Write a sequence for this structure.
């Protein structure tokens, strides 16, 4: 097997007596979608926060592209190519969709300490940003402020921003949440193709999407991974059925 | 240096700390419960001092003046809360800063209008005049000791109020979850008015007590207010325990700095420069302490939440 | 399509023109007082333009910008005093009364102070940031009044206004024109910053710092840079203010000054290019008009300010030009 893009070993994080992450190990290899599922409160978001750098684990290691992430903040990890979408969308609300994506293009070019040239006339920002909006189907809404976009459009915008970073891996935290059936179906098709650009660690509640997309699935319950495997293995795992799918053993 | 002098300075530091605690307790309570930053808190301090001085002069009794100061400051607090402050809870801190800055202008000019620009004077009550002997041969003003005593009583009282009473339970609930307390059927706007008036009364008490040590004048609340901010930033905003610890720390560090720095610098510097440098350094000392604490603990020593 | 000539642009041009024409006319009519009044507006506006970079663009509510205003003022005062007494500064370096050199010293000094102050303050946010910037300014204030070498509590007089090549700065009009030119430069800087890549990052830091970090830009670096630039512009205005009054006063460092600078921005419109200019005009005219009627003008200022905060959010520019849109 190729060296994993993202490798997490024995990660632990407690809040008081609550073990939110209790010895989690998992990895993400090139070309795959690795889905992380589990009931509410299982610690999925806590895990994503630690991987992206907004929470510091108590112990354990995270390696991205072979590099230890300890001591690197969120911005530094994003610079290395770890792109994240948020569970509840997190955008510059007063900026248009286009400017939100332009910011990502600018970050990727590594040039935020430029003080004079006006961004609105800078085609090296606007053109790639527009291309990303076109890819997610949001081009006709490019000049609408983020706060005026619909819920589903904001999720699309989150994806466009992540794409614009040209990342080496995606962390997508419930990208389907709150989308209609049509939107979910489109996004499923989109993510299916996206895995060829960079592998995806996908946290998702929509089981149809997970079973349609995932190469591998890990099941997180009470901060522990109770099973990892291919879709069929997970679907038929008795422990998973009992702990998560709510069926009697 | 003599032991008596050292003890005297320590007690002075403690007395300053107690004063700051009375101010900071109200500020931190108001921030913790309502999420409001109140620059006009120094105005209640001033109101308390003016009320005490005026009433004491009219009646001849410091004690009636003291009661008047509590009533005046609490009433001013309640009125200001109902007229202005409650419109600010949902606003951002910038709006709160500006509106309460405007209140300072109004209170200061209003007081100057009523009382003129000349300071008032307040005498130490006969009961508390005189001095107590200190170990080591010195003497210490009884009145200042009494202020320290008042501070200890208020600290214990606040602790009991918050941990043992129904009002305290509501205050604690209000700090952790505003929606829950509304769901419990507690009349939240009355609670807020009460908390604000309580904070104002503590500031008024502080002003009245200090009024007998200094002159009572417009603007007297401002330096104390800023020190009280330093106190609650050090202690952690929202924490009464932090306010107590921060107040004593600031009071003692400031007083001892002014006392000890010249003596310490005398050992390494020529006398001509000692006074110059130690004076400037002592006046900056608590801010340096604050910067150091915040550089390592950005939310203060006893922050209520991370 | 975006409108090219917006109501805001027209308002801005009108304000800029008004601020230039009134003192020119006053000068022709031999009313130097009004020229000085316009100069006061101009210098306070420049100070607030500086603060507006941190507060308006970056959302950093600095309650300590008086520190930089005063530092600039003392730079002018100290250099002028040394030059007047023909004392070298230190290491035999001669002081100067040349304004451009003084401005350079003021700006560099403010940048050097703003970096450590900002670095510590920006570890905090929200109310802590407001209070810690206030506390740092108080620290500098107390230092200034307890350090007797440069006047202590009495401040520092500038006996002869500093000089500018090719202009007689002792005359009100040439000095006004120098200040006006610098205000235009300050406004140009604010405008360029706001529209640049740096500005895009800074705007995002204000709206949503997590978003900024998630695309790989560290908010701390952006904010610290903005804080330092902001301090330098306010410091430049401080140097002009000291020259205007021929006096570097500790009151320039006081927390009332910090509050006034915020007031100017809010009266005019936070984050708006000409907000500080509109705010400074309103403020100085209030002060002048109310001050002529009653000694208690600050009482009425407080009431007006309270009314603006409670009922007229967005300030004057918000009333005239509506909500700001960023495209």
């Amino acid at each position: 097997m190729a060296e994993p893009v993202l490798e997490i070993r024995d990660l632990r994080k407690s809040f008081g007596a609550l073990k939110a992450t209790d010895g989690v190990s998992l990895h993400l290899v090139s070309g795959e979608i690795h889905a992380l599922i589990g009931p509410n409160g299982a610690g999925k978001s806590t895990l994503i926060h630690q991987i992206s750098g907004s929470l510091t684990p108590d112990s354990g290691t995270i390696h991205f592209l072979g590099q230890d992430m300890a001591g690197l903040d969120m911005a530094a990890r994003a610079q290395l190519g770890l792109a994240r979408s948020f569970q509840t969308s997190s955008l510059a609300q007063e900026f248009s969709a286009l400017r939100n994506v332009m910011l990502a293009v600018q970050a990727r070019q590594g040039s935020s300490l430029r003080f004079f040239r006006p961004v609105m006339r800078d085609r090296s920002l606007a053109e790639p940003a527009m291309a990303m909006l076109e890819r997610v189907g949001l081009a006709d809404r490019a000049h609408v402020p983020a706060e005026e976009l619909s819920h589903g459009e904001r999720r699309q915008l989150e994806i466009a921003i992540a794409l614009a970073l040209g990342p080496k891996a995606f962390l997508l935290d419930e990208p389907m949440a709150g989308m209609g059936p049509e939107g979910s179906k489109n996004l499923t098709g989109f993510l299916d193709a996206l895995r060829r650009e960079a592998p995806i660690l996908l946290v998702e509640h929509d089981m149809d999407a997970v079973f349609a997309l995932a190469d591998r699935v890990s099941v997180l319950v009470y901060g522990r991974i109770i099973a990892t495997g291919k879709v069929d293995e997970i679907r038929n795992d008795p422990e998973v059925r009992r702990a998560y799918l709510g069926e009697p053993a | 240096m003599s032991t008596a002098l050292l003890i005297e300075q320590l007690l002075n530091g403690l007395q300053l700390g107690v004063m700051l605690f009375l101010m900071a307790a109200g500020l931190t309570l108001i921030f913790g419960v309502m999420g409001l930053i109140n620059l006009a808190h120094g105005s209640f301090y001033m109101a308390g001092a003016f009320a005490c001085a005026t009433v004491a002069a009219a009646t001849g009794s410091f004690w009636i003046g003291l009661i008047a100061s509590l009533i005046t400051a609490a009433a001013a607090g309640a009125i200001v809360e109902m007229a202005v402050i409650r419109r600010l809870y949902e606003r951002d801190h910038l709006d709160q800063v500006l509106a309460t800055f405007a209140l300072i202008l109004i209170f200061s000019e209003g007081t100057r209008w009523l009382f003129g620009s000349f300071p008032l004077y307040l005498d130490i009550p006969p009961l508390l005049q005189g001095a107590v002997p200190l170990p080591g041969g010195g003497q210490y003003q009884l009145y200042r000791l009494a202020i320290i005593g008042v501070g200890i009583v208020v600290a214990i009282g606040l602790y009991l109020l918050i941990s043992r009473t129904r009002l305290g339970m509501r205050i604690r609930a209000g700090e952790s979850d505003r929606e829950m307390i509304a769901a419990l059927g507690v009349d939240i706007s009355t609670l807020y008015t009460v908390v604000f008036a309580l904070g104002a009364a503590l500031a008024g008490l502080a002003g009245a007590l200090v009024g007998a040590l200094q002159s009572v004048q417009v603007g007297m609340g401002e330096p104390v207010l800023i020190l009280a901010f330093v106190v609650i930033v050090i202690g952690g905003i929202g924490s009464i325990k932090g306010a107590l610890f921060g107040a004593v720390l600031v009071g003692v560090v400031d007083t001892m700095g002014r006392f000890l720095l010249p003596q310490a610098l005398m050992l390494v510097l020529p006398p001509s420069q000692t006074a110059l440098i130690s004076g400037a350094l002592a006046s900056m000392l608590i801010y340096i302490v604050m910067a150091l604490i915040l550089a390592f603990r950005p939310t203060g020593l006893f922050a209520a939440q991370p | 399509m975006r409108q090219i000539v917006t109501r805001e642009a027209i308002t801005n041009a009108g304000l800029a023109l008004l601020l230039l024409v009134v003192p020119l006319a006053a000068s022709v009519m031999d009313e130097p007082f009004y020229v000085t009044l316009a100069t006061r507006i101009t210098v306070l506006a420049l100070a607030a333009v500086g603060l507006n970079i941190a507060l308006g663009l970056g959302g950093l509510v600095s309650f300590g910008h008086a520190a930089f205003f005063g530092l600039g003022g003392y730079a002018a005062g100290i250099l002028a005093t040394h030059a007047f007494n023909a004392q070298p500064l230190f290491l035999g370096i001669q002081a100067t009364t040349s304004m451009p050199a003084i401005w350079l010293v003021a700006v560099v000094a403010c940048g050097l102070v703003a970096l450590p102050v900002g670095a510590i303050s920006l570890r905090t946010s929200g109310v802590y940031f407001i209070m810690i910037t206030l506390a740092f300014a108080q620290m500098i204030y107390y230092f200034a009044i307890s350090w007797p070498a440069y006047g202590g509590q009495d401040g520092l007089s500038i006996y002869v206004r500093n000089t500018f090549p090719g202009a007689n700065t002792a005359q009100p009009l040439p000095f006004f024109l120098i200040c006006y030119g610098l205000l235009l430069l300050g406004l140009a800087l604010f405008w360029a910053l706001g529209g640049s890549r740096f500005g895009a990052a800074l705007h995002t830091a204000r709206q949503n710092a997590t978003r900024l970090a998630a695309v790989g830009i560290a908010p701390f670096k952006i904010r610290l840079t903005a804080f330092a630039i902001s301090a330098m512009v306010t410091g430049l205005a401080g140097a002009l203010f000291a020259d205007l009054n021929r006096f570097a006063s500790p009151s320039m460092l006081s927390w009332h000054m910090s509050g006034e600078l915020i007031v100017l921005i809010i009266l005019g419109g936070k984050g708006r290019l000409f907000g500080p200019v509109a705010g400074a005009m309103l403020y100085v005219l209030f002060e002048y008009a109310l001050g002529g009627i009653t000694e208690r003008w600050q009482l009425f200022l407080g009431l007006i300010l309270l009314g603006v905060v409670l009922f007229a959010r967005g300030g004057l520019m918000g009333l005239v030009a509506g909500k700001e849109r960023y495209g």
